[in-house]
Amino acid sequence: MKYIYIITLFSITLSCTEPTTKTEAEDVELINFRVNRDLKLSEFIDSIEYNILPKEIKYGYFDKILLTENNFIIADFEMSMNIYILDKQFNLISIINKYGEGPGEYQWIENINYNIERETIEVLTNKDILRYSISGAFIESIKLPFSFGNFSSISRDKYIIYNNNLTTDYPESTYMFAIWDSKTNNLEPLVKHIKNDLVSSHLDRSNIFRYEDEVFASHIFLDTLYKINTNKKISKFHININNQNLPYEYVKFDTESGHESILDKSEVMSNYAFHYPKLMANKEFLIDGYIKNNTIYFYLLNRINRDIFTGINIINDIDGGLNYLNPRILDNSNNIYTFHEYEELKEKANINIDKKLIFNEYIKSLGPETGFVVAKYHIKNL
């Protein structure tokens, strides 16, 4: 199964950024890569392992997956509206299932965060942040100054927020990224929007990522990736996708038809690619995403030697299994994790049913009661 991005899911907001000034960014680095190539897994992966997720996770979609020092946190925002907390061996620790209107309950999940300093799971709704313990117990709620799309804690009480809503009365709401102090309600602007009728998405769920004292941030269509340090120094990367970046002036709704977007025209989109943030990072690597021909792809940047790995066609020359890679987690041991339904893996095995492949042998060992399987790809020493 490939992960197809549907352009019609976008909604109108006003979002792009001003040209960077000295106060916003001090240096710029180019991330430049070629997309139209085959990529063998063995070029950057040396092993693949598989594990079964607990039987309690029977259905749903994994909208956000977080990794802490001891746990995986898997959140389904819309179907089950559950948040599953697992240990590092994928054993179930607890489930947050708080749909409702009472204290500690939610009717909408916009995003989630793990507050490292508090050791709490935080659920962002359209009106507040709900804090829970790893055991799933409700702790407290914090009222929002206005609704926003994503957030990442940088201390016990401070957050970098992504504002995809420019309709509020706050002057600071003109900023795409800001630091919000949940104790004082103070907002400190970081990167400003330009109101030029561009389109952004309410599905920017992985456009902020914190690694130690660095926060990486961007948004869909934007070819700039910001790195914000805890001392508020901002540097930025320019993402050049094979010189095929979608021009900003194309990211508009067609005023003549009133509703049809130029993004829906295949003859236009086949010529361009655009940034689709899927941010994750550790000391050695950065992973991010882009869209080409309505399909989401990833690129892997070696932060040390600056090598980049990406490709339109993935060739699995390690275990003969899946010929695509949708990274969801990158850990500090340089493992990439992907998550799959059993039927998805079985379908792939059936295609190569006559071949003696390591992947096929593993799938044969599973039963129809299997729900979800996690694959762990280890990045070789590059």
UniProtKB/TrEMBL annotation:
<protein>
    <submittedName>
        <fullName>6-bladed beta-propeller protein</fullName>
    </submittedName>
</protein>
<dbReference type="Pfam" id="PF17170">
    <property type="entry name" value="DUF5128"/>
</dbReference>
